[in-house]
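Predict the 3D structure for this chain.
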Amino acid sequence: MSRLAALRARLPDVLPVGVGLVAVGLSSYALLGVAAHHLDPAQYAGVGSLFLLTNILGVGVFHAVEQEVNREVSARSASGLGSRPVLRAAAGVCAALVLVVLVGLAAAGPRLVTDVFAGSSELLVAAMVGVVGSAVLYTIRGTFAGRRRYGWYASTMLVEGGSRLLLAGMLVLLGAVGTGVYGYGLVAAFGVAALLTLPGLRGSAGGPPAPVLPMAGRIVSLVGTLGMTYLVANLAPVVLTGRLPATAADTAAAFVSAFVLTRAPIFLFAPVQAFLLPAVTGALERGDADRVRFQVRLLVAAVLAVGITGGLVLTIFGPWITRTFLSSRVDLDHRTFGLLALSVLMMMVAQVLQPVLLGLRRHRSAAAAWAVGTVVFLALLLSPLPPLVGALSAQLVGPVCVLVLMTASFRRGLRDVRAPVLPGPVETVRPSS
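Done. Predicted structure below.
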């Protein structure tokens, strides 16, 4: 089968997932855009920080559950075994993770409410709801992926995005409402998507028990790596909002808008990544180093095409877009948009290399790259530098460190490919929407 034919064969499975990713991203933009027009800058910065914090503590944690459930269910399906025991074991692990995250949120709650959520305790409650909803939804998604039910998998994303878009439209008609409504709207979509796609789990047969402790160990390990990914991708505006004085709420709100806006190329690239990455997986399974190199170059070229084009547009027109569509009262300079766009470009290339490194069995190298990048990121973000300078420096230098280390590991890994590599399921690292 030719390369083009192989890609076409994958299209019916991966394209709906890519479209679902775009729907989730666009719906978040829509709801944040409505919030920007109806809330004062401090309240809007709080809602934007909730969105980013949920990506770290909800999506960032429970995406690991999705990947492990996917792996377990895939292995059982290949052996003709049912997935119900995996769901039971994953539910237990999820419950423990939810408890840990909720305790952490409760402990940090007073500081978050005061410094980040503009005094709104409802946003803290919304963050907790988002954690619970993410736990349920990502477990369901892992089951759908493991059973190759990609239509249902895409449906979870379309329902999540659609419910947010519906709420955004309702809020446009209603006008001004409380801050909590926007917060609950962002996170309630997880629960709506989980509830409406539950019927897709029908037909899950029984089988041998799935050991909980080994599963928990693998999930915790994944949480470490993915958690760092989502932390670097989302934390800077949250910390900046907390560090800036109340008198600088306009600046905090403008940075949140610029930060979210410059991530748009990630969602535009998502369908391309979902379409091409399975071809890399196939080449890894055959141990074809030349094909792996070709496919990775193709993916990186797509990243550069989308990222550079989008970055240039946002660098030039970003201040006008945030002022016109996100009601920013402060125009951040073009350089700020350019640096944020460059940071996103680095993150997109890292999203290409990370699953490839996992397929090359270089898990430790991938984790080490993120560990170093996270340490550098946090050191700059929390440094004595002026808050905005520290946030921009951290957002750029952290991903650059990750990318340099991943690139070196990828090159070493390709030299070791001599015989067929038999990796576990290679997962797309989804954008930290």
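The longest helix spans residues 41-78.
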